[in-house]
């Protein structure tokens, strides 16, 4: 049996309470949301937090999905399964459905949260690529109030995020615009596995040309999970197979995959190109 | 009739969560054990400091290699005449090796205390790639063995080298192929563990343990620990999957026993998932070179094979003593060939011991994979359809019983019929037409064929033993006065449904419903001696014992019935489940009536005791040889290398099917295993010997999403040597299916000129193969 080391446990009953608890227990305390990243690490004793602040009771404050002020707002405590089932989210952005269908398995999706995924900051996290492609904004709350961080600046390195000790990620906001199509493509060794590589694409077309492109990449060492050079290449061009293939090539060139048991670096780089191309083509077809 | 589909009696408790597994057993005052394991693959132990752990308020004992050395238990014999460290004293020889054992009041404290043990290691160079194990300068792993200067364990050969070589010299066509059957793990849902309870007052040791061979464990504990055998009771309760990984005795079992003796309390130790994957019996790890000699028109004449077998740090494979490579020399497969020869060299490496597990029928898996890959390589060389090439070379029904070029006597079979059935079910010609269309459009579709002959049901005891214990199994049958029966057998189910199948056998023989038969197994105090369940031997051996002991009881019943009918036993016949006077079936006596009479004051003939029971031991005259034809259809995405198994047709012939539903369940599971091995499973190691598959995040098990809806077919060729004609099926699908999947993928990659690719065929591996740059799947991906 894998068992964690000893820790204190507190259940927060509001965001304010959670922030108080974080302050009280200090930097060795950790927030626990779905627990599907943190608890396995604790059982393997790779993580030994002194205290867990449980935010699972905060669904009323952090568990909503809604369109407000031209943005889709997704609470940090929204479960993967809820995002997958939310017509509000997936009708606007089919990329959520594409991605959530292939994140982990139903058991993990029932508990794992959007906020936990982003805060975990795993270099292979699917939602990091999705929100990067969507150019979302992260809303962070601390003792001094809330602040916003563009999601493309949210990840500061592997397992490092803009959320400071004593702060909570509370929401993600995605700009909504007409004429947008989106898609996600992932290669995994088996259903429920983390990606060998994955790419998300968001295209906004105006007057027959691409007004804005968003490309998210995960597990391939792309800085901030995005591919700005490829996006730039697409901007102003009409959508088409050739442009998409070239964008894939550029995206692949700028990523820095490393080999592991999921695959060698050259293969992952190839996938970055291939999946970017495929995601762009699907996204264009959905506009 | 008791044969036929019947819901498993076991299901009622399993689907209600009312099974009773080792970890469910709780005894008053029970303590918990945990094992400290080596982080290094090869290192000298400089010192072990347990003082801080001993000072932990909830720790009751800390046991090290030194403690065990004092009891002469630091080393234990393996199932292959080698020794294995229980807890390391001198060196650690694989990552995950057992170094110390903590006994504490709860499982949490036991784990906490592991972190308080301070071990100083001096790391040594490790031997990871088996191909380097015999290099002159290679580090000597087993310097504990007197006079050892290298890592060579054995050389073994079978077949006729001279005849084989001669055929190769004259052959019109020869092909050769290197291939790896990588190290995999059966990964049962329930990990290994033991609960040991030594009663100081009675001197009796009781061990609950998910063992596939409870009687063998008892005898070995007696021999190794010097405990009197009648004071040892091994109870194997419900087992959550074994697949061969629960045959041997693991260091943790011995530690739990010593822990109980030392503390005077029951001690439970259960592995976690990583421990299970890192330290218990792996499977395969065969590096093979196959060669085939044939005529231009596709007649296979000879096969020869060279194998480098990676046995890990201790030679702990479980197999009959005379066969260090198991039954690998059945590699001439299902084909009518003139000569065959194999050479196997076993070596030590800095990896976990084991080697025979994962439903391999003592390495028939490796043999079938080798020959079925080689036939496809030959088909590609000759430009022949692989099904057609097989058809030309399959043994013919009239050739049975057939003595193979390596000395096996196949009992019975109609191979062409099985292959034809599989091809009809698959719509083989249509599939080939579809494939041609797809190829013209640049799409990759593959059709893989494999044909296997299994060799299961060891003994005979004359040829087959494990550590000197002959492979024969006992059965005891008692019919109660009201006609209900209890059968006691030596084998132990790990999910095979013995409680149902064996009840059906007894029911069939005695003319009573299977529901009236209770099957007792898994408790050495309650069952007769025998070597247990592995190598698909339960139905071939214990199933035969169940039938024969039933017939003994039936013969006894005949005498009682004769007394009841006031007739001579010679005038009775057995019909419709009753003994009756020939020609007068209406006055027949059922088993229930006879049973009551046997326990009554009915006067019985002289020399016949009352009651209705019997005992037997079944020593099989030969193995049984199940076979089958499998066809797999895959689609491969050329842009990503992803493989989708679209269809899988499996025609199995396991002789008489006692419970076809259970047979199909066994096949479903084995096919899923095959897909897993072919596409995703491997335990690779980096150059320092770090295990790269030590959790389910890295060691992948297939799910329903990767498995097609299996299409099963059957032919029935009874075994002539088995009392009810049954052959055993537990491992057939695991043995036969990996080759079908790999053959399908290689077939799909035909347009790229690919003739072989090693398992597992992950997307990355397939993509690299297509690009002509495959990597070694058993090592870290560079
Ligand atoms: C078997 C399995 C398979 C998986 N497969 C995939 C996959 O294919 N793709 C993929 O992308 N992911 C996968 N995951 C990971 C999973 O999607 C997420 O990691 C997980 O759901 C994280 O969310 P959580 O709510 O469980 O986070 P937790 O484990 O509760 O927390 C993770 C980290 O985030 C912090 N945290 C959580 N919420 C907040 C917050 N609101 N504010 C500040 N910090 C916070 C925690 O302190 C912790 O450090 C898999 C996980 C498992 C167990």
CATH topology group of the largest domain in chain A: Uridine Diphospho-n-acetylenolpyruvylglucosamine Reductase, domain 3
Low-confidence stretches of chain B: none
Oligomer category: heterodimer
* Mean pLDDT metric of chain A: 97
- Cα gyration radius of chain B (Å): 27 Å
What's the count of strands of chain B? 34
Mean pLDDT level of chain B = 97
* Strand and helix order of chain A: EHEHEHEEHHHHHHEEEEEEEEHHH
- Could you give a short account of the major beta sheet of chain B? 7 strands, mixed
> How are the strands ordered across the major sheet of chain B?
3-7-1-14-11-12-13
Strands of chain A, count: 13
Radius of gyration of chain A: 19 Å
Tell me about the biggest sheet of chain A?
5 strands, antiparallel
What is the spatial order of strands in the main beta sheet of chain A? 4-5-10-6-7
| CATH class bucket of the largest domain in chain A | Alpha Beta
Ends apart, CA distance between termini of chain B:
60 Å
Protein name (chain B): Carbon monoxide dehydrogenase large subunit apoprotein
Keywords (chain B): Molybdenum, Oxidoreductase
Cofactor (chain B): Mo-molybdopterin cytosine dinucleotide
InterPro entries (chain B): Ald_Oxase/Xan_DH_a/b, Ald_Oxase/Xan_DH_a/b_sf, Ald_Oxase/xanthine_DH-like, AldOxase/xan_DH_MoCoBD1, AldOxase/xan_DH_MoCoBD2, AldOxase/xan_DH_Mopterin-bd_sf, CO_Mo_DH_lsu
In short:
The complex is a heterodimer of chains A (287) and B (782). With 287 residues, chain A is of the alpha+beta class.
What does this structure look like?
The complex is a heterodimer of chains A (287) and B (782). Chain A has 287 residues and is of the alpha+beta class. Chain A is built from twelve helices and 13 strands. Chain A has helices at residues 15-25, 38-43, 59-62, 80-85, 87-92, 94-101, 106-111, 114-120, 126-133, 228-234, 241-253, 265-285, and strands at 8-11, 29-32, 51-54, 65-68, 71-75, 137-142, 145-150, 155-157, 160-161, 168-175, 180-187, 197-206, 209-218. In chain A, a hairpin with a 2-residue loop joins strand 4 and strand 5. The longest helix of chain A has 21 residues, at 265-285. Chain B has a seven-stranded mixed sheet with strand order 3-7-1-14-11-12-13, sandwiched between helices. In chain B, strands 9-18-17-16-10 form a five-stranded mixed sheet, with helices on both faces. In chain B, strands 22-32-33-34 form a four-stranded mixed sheet, sandwiched between helices. The model of chain B has no long low-confidence stretch (mean pLDDT 97). The longest helix of chain B is centred in the last third of the chain and has 28 residues, at 538-565. Chain B is built from 18 helices and 34 strands. Bound molecules: flavin-adenine dinucleotide. Flavin-adenine dinucleotide binds next to strand 2, helix 2, helix 8, helix 9 and strand 10 of chain A.
């Amino acid at each position: 049996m894998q068992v964690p080391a000893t820790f204190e446990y507190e259940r927060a009953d509001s965001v304010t309470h959670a922030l108080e608890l974080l302050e009280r227990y200090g930097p060795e305390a950790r927030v626990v949301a779905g627990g599907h990243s943190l608890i396995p690490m604790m059982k393997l004793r790779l993580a030994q937090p002194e205290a867990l602040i449980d935010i699972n009771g905060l669904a009323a404050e952090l568990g909503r999905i809604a369109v407000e002020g031209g943005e889709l707002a997704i609470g940090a405590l929204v479960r993967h399964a809820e995002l997958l089932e939310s017509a509000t989210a997936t009708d606007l952005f089919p990329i959520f459905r594409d991605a959530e269908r292939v994140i982990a398995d139903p058991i993990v999706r029932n508990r794992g949260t959007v906020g936990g995924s982003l805060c975990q900051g795993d270099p292979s996290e699917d939602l990091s690529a999705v929100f990067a492609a969507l150019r979302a904004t992260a809303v962070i709350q601390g003792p001094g109030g809330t602040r916003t961080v563009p999601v493309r600046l949210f990840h500061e390195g592997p397992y490092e995020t803009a959320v400071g000790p004593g702060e909570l990620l509370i929401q993600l906001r995605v700009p909504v615009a007409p004429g947008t199509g989106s898609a996600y493509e992932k290669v995994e060794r088996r259903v429920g596995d983390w990606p060998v590589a994955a790419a998300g694409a968001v295209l906004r077309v105006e007057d027959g040309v691409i007004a804005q492109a968003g490309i998210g990449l995960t597990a391939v060492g792309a800085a901030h999970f995005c591919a700005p050079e490829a996006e730039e290449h697409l901007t102003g061009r009409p959508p088409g197979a050739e442009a998409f293939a070239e964008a894939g090539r550029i995206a692949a060139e700028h990523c820095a995959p490393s080999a592991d048991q999921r695959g060698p670096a050259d293969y992952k780089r190839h996938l970055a190109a291939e999946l970017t191309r495929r995601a762009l083509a699907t996204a264009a077809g959905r506009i | 009739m008791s044969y036929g589909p019947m819901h498993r009696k076991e299901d009622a408790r399993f689907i209600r969560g009312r099974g009773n597994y080792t970890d469910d057993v709780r005894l008053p005052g029970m303590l918990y054990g945990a094992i400290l394991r080596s982080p290094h693959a090869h290192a000298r132990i400089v010192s072990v400091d347990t003082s801080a752990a001993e000072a932990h308020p909830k720790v009751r004992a800390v046991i090290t290699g030194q403690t065990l050395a004092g009891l002469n238990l630091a080393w234990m014999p393996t199932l292959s005449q080698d020794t294995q460290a229980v807890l390391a004293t001198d060196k650690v020889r694989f990552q995950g090796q057992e170094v110390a054992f903590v006994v504490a009041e709860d499982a949490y404290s036991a784990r906490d205390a592991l972190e308080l043990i301070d071990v100083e290691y001096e790391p040594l160079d490790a031997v990871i790639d088996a191909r380097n194990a015999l290099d002159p300068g290679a580090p000597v792993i087993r310097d504990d063995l007197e006079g050892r200067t290298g890592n060579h364990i054995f050389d073994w050969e079978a077949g006729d080298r001279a005849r084989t070589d001669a055929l190769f010299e004259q052959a019109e066509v020869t092909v050769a192929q290197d291939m790896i059957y990588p190290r995999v793990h059966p990964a049962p849902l329930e990990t290994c563990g033991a609960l040991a309870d030594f009663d100081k007052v009675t001197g009796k040791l009781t061990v609950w343990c998910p063992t596939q061979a409870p009687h063998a464990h008892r005898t070995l504990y007696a021999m190794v620990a010097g405990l009197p055998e009648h004071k040892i009771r091994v109870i194997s309760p419900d087992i959550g999957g074994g697949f061969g990984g629960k045959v041997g005795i693991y260091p943790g079992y011995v530690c739990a026993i010593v822990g109980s003796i030392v503390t005077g309390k029951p001690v439970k130790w259960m592995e976690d998932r990583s421990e299970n994957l890192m330290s218990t019996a792996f499977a395969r790890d065969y590096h093979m070179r196959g060669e085939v000699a044939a005529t231009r028109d596709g007649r296979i004449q000879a096969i020869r094979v060279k194998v480098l077998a990676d046995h890990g740090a201790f030679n702990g494979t479980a197999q009959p003593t005379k066969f260090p490579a198991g039954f690998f020399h059945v590699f001439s497969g299902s084909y009518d060939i003139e000569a065959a020869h194999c050479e196997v060299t076993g070596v030590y490496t800095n990896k976990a011991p084991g080697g025979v597990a994962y439903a391999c029928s003592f390495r028939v898996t490796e043999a079938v994979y080798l020959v079925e890959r080689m036939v496809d390589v030959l088909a590609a060389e000759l430009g022949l359809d692989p099904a057609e090439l097989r058809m030309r070379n399959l043994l013919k029904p009239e050739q049975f019983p057939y003595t193979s070029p390596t000395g096996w006597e196949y009992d019975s079979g109609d191979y062409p019929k099985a292959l034809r059935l599989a091809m009809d079910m698959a719509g083989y010609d249509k599939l080939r037409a579809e494939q041609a269309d797809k190829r013209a459009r640049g799409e990759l579709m593959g059709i893989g064929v494999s044909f296997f002959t299994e060799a299961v049901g060891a003994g005979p005891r004359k040829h087959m033993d494990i550590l000197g214990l002959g492979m024969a199994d006992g059965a005891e049958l008692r019919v109660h006065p009201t006609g209900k029966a209890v059968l006691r057998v030596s084998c132990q189910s790990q999910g095979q449904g013995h409680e149902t199948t064996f009840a059906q056998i007894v029911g069939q023989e005695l003319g009573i419903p299977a529901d009236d038969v209770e099957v007792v197994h898994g408790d050495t105090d309650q069952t007769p001696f025998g070597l247990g369940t592995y190598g698909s031997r339960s139905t071939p051996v214990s199933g035969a014992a169940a039938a024969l002991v039933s017939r003994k009881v039936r013969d006894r019943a005949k005498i009682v019935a004769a007394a009841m009918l006031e007739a001579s036993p010679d005038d009775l016949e057995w019909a419709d489940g009753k003994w009756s006077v020939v020609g007068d079936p209406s006055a027949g006596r059922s088993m229930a009536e006879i049973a009551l009479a046997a326990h009554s004051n009915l006067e019985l003939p002289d020399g016949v005791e009352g009651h209705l029971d019997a005992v037997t031991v079944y020593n099989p005259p030969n193995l049984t040889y199940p076979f089958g034809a499998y066809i797999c259809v895959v689609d491969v995405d050329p842009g990503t290398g992803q493989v989708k198994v679209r269809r899988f047709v499996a025609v199995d012939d396991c002789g008489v099917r006692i419970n076809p539903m259970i047979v199909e369940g066994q096949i479903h599971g084995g096919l899923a295993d095959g897909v897993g091995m072919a596409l995703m499973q491997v335990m690779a190691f980096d150059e320092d010997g770090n295990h790269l598959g030590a959790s389910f995040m890295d060691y992948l098990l297939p799910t329903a999403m990767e498995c097609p809806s299996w299409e099963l077919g059957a032919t029935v060729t009874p075994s002539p040597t088995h009392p009810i004609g049954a052959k055993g099926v537990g491992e057939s699908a695991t043995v036969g299916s990996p080759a079908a999947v790999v053959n399908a993928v290689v077939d799909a990659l035909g347009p790229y000129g690919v003739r072989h690719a090693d398992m597992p065929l992950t997307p990355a591996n397939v993509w690299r193969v297509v690009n002509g740059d495959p990597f070694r799947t058993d090592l870290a991906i560079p």
